[in-house]
Description:
By secondary structure, the chain is α+β, with helices and mostly antiparallel strands. The protein has helices at residues 5-15, 22-36, 44-51, 55-63, 69-83, 155-167, 179-193, 205-208, 211-219, 264-271, 350-357, 361-373, 384-406; strands at residues 88-97, 107-111, 116-129, 134-141, 201-203, 224-228, 233-236, 262-263, 277-283, 295-307, 323-328, 338-342.
Amino acid sequence: xxxxxxxxxxxxxxxFGGFARRDQRAKGELYLRGLMLDGKRKSMQPMAARLGVDHxxxxxxxxxxxxxxxxxxxxxxxxxxxxxxxxxxxxxDTGFPKDGKDSPGVARMYCGALGKTGNxxxxxxxxxxxxxxxxxxxWRLFLPESxxxxxxxxxxxxAEIRTRRARSQVPxxxxxxxxxxxxxxxxxxxxxxxxxxxxxxxxxAGYGDATEFRLGLTERGLTYVLAVSPAATAHPAQAxxxxxxxxxxxxxxxxxxxxxxxxxxxxxMNAGRSAGKFVVWRHGTKKTPGNPAASMRSRFLALRVxxxxxxxxxxxxxxxxxxxLLAEWPPGAAEPTDYWLSTLPADIRLRDLxxxxxxxxxxxxxxxxxxxxxxxxxxxxxxxxGWHRHVTLAAVAQAICTQLRRTPKAPAQA
Length: 414
């Protein structure tokens, strides 16, 4: 810590430079050091004990002090744009297991950290990502319907929800919104309010299967590579709508596809294994006798398709928009195992399409480092504001770690 403290102080000064008070900037730097010090638990009291301070200093800074965590995130996004120079913006979410029921947004729902349904909070995040680094630049805490008194007609239940919301200081304007809507809100913030460049959006099928999410990205001028279910349907790109002859009775028929759309698995199986090509998308670190280069390699096929859904707007001629269907068909597998839809350019190289589809691996690294090393899920406070501030500070701490890894030697403390 003595060796890297000057780096932490400089980074904290750039992130907290907008704070009005000097003591807030000092406590922000102190909190970052607490997150980065050795020690398994990164909640207030253990951190304060390691730092040799009263834990109420940290508690007050996170829960009640007047500083703008959105401004800190904006500065972090600006840093990431320059230092990381991301190839994509990756959307994901992660669970925070909880024992009680008073933490904001806590409910029984699927929790990836538990691998099952359990009592937890869920945070949705946006990451600026490239193959060598990533930064969690924005966060939202998912609020289930059970925390929204406007979602129930029973007045007694609504009153109980309002009591819980008041206890956790959930702002009145914050209501239940689907995770994909939270993701769009954050992308508006990152690429709109914060002025960051638009980059391809990558996410898992929890987001890719939401037609409204895909349409929302297109409306914002954002391309994407989104994992989807093989049960999603589409027409082959060469399919053309036709107009049936009008016999003069009733409303004239409009253009329509004569054949029904088929699921993505059928389209890939019809193309056949031979339509795919082997692609190396990353070189890992776990070398084996059969793979000394530790390369990540598989067979992929890319087809031009037209996703079919009643909510997708059609052109004047009745045609649906065209995009890529990417399917991974590993050696020895009887059928493809993973599917993506992408609006990246039609002339993109297959290896570039695959690399972006697979770049989500960085987020697994992010969450592991943030949770295991930097206490992302150790916050024990029960306020809405406190949670958002804590995860923001954990993301800043991770950014410092990224900068230290990229810098051969940190300067020694004078």
